[in-house]
Amino acid sequence: MIKKLYILFVILLTSSLSIFSQTYTLQPGAEEGKDCEIWSYSQSSAQRGDTQSMNVYTWTYNGIKTTKRALIEFDLSTFSSDMNLLKASLSLYYNPDDPYESVEEHSGENEIFIERVSDAWEENTVLWNNQPSTTSENRIEFSKSKNARQNYLDIDVTQLVQNMLDDPENSHGFMVKMQNEEDPYRMIILATSDHPESSYHPKLVLEFKKTIAIPGIEDLDDMTKQEQQYLQEGQEGPIEIEEQDQDDTIEIIIFPNPIIRGRNLVIAFQSPVRQTNDISYNLYDALGRKILSGKIKYQREELSSDLLESGMYFLNVYDNKGNETTKKIVVVQG
Questions:
Q1: Other beta carbons within 10 Å of 110
Q2: How many beta carbons lie within 10 A of that of residue 125, not counting itself?
Q3: Is residue 33 a contact partner of residue 201, using CB atoms and an 8 Å limit?
Q4: What is the DSSP letter of 75?
Q5: Is this prediction's pTM over 0.85?
Q6: DSSP one-letter code for 52
Q7: DSSP bridge partners of 11
Q8: What is d(CA 196, CA 209) in angstroms, rounded to the nearest whole number?
Q9: Which one of 2.60.40.1930, 2.40.110.10, 3.40.50.300, 3.40.630.30 gives the CATH number of domain 2-17+217-332?
Q10: Is there a contact between 258 and 231 (Cβ–Cβ < 8 Å)?
Q11: Which of 95, 79, 328 is nearest to 205 (CA)?
């Protein structure tokens, strides 16, 4: 659910919009990750969801042609269809430590499909015989691997993810399978979220458009003059931003604000930060251009303003649970 948060500050009452993007990275580990392979040779035996590989192939086993497919699902429950998805990128990583196959690398004419899964499934109980249905709508056709240990990076799955956000009841992740499942000796070897190396875990990056109403800022040329008036007299007016409606909100204090260029900006949390929350920040200028980004590791963090020009900025602080807040900052020349 989306709620409106109003921040009051001293500013002129003419209005314009600043549009910027908010990025979320989903790369769960063994506890939260959901991925596995299903195998036609073992149709009635579940392929455990705690193995480190999910391989996709058409091969032979004991002289019989067999097929493997991979299933991956990310938790999208904190996102909704009205959040203006700009881009979704899926990355799948080669597993150099695969202990299961007779070959160690990607092999053959291994073009793949990536499709949206339309039925619910569980990684420890899904079988070849009860595998979930998929839809070919907006499916991704990916070409043959370019090298034997290729990582499949930043695959554009925007349309698939938008379909998932539009129809969450009938969307349960991705299926990866060979385009040609008739002719054997084609394979890709992929790591799951159970691999001991976290950088190999499947990753989904979501970028959303966010709009902030900024009264008094018509263009970059006018900004400095208006900010000077804002600092000297000004009036009260609202900034409207969109924030996730969560039980655990992020409450921060920014000081000094306005800040003289060259001094350090302090970000302090008003309540203890949970260790399980991965907290990041993006700093945008008034035109929505990202200026700085990084991680916040401590209860009190300092950022240098040495590289910032005089002007208005927006600091967006967010965690991996979907909680966020945005604060306005003014930098003035000392």
A1: 22
A2: 11
A3: yes
A4: -
A5: no
A6: S
A7: 235
A8: 34
A9: 2.60.40.1930
A10: yes
A11: 79
> 């190999």: which residue's tokens?
200
Query: How many other β-carbons are positioned within 10 Å of the β-carbon of residue 312?
Result: 23
**What are the residue ranges spanned by the domains of the chain?**
2-17+217-332, 28-201
Task: Tell which residue, 12, 4, 19, has the closest CA to residue 215.
Answer: 12
Amino acid at 50: D
In this structure, which amino acid lies at residue 217? Answer: I
At which residue do the structure tokens 């990056």 appear? 205
- Structure token pair of residue 322: 């979907």
Amino acid letter for position 88: A
Q: What is the pLDDT along the chain (334 residues), one digit of tens a residue?
A: 333 333 333 333 333 445 567 788 999 999 999 999 999 998 665 566 789 999 999 999 999 999 999 999 999 998 999 888 999 999 999 999 988 887 889 999 999 999 999 999 999 999 999 999 999 999 999 999 999 999 999 999 999 999 999 999 999 999 999 999 999 999 999 999 999 999 999 999 999 887 554 444 444 344 444 444 433 433 333 333 333 344 456 778 888 888 888 888 888 876 665 554 678 899 998 888 888 888 887 778 888 888 888 889 999 988 887 788 888 999 988 6
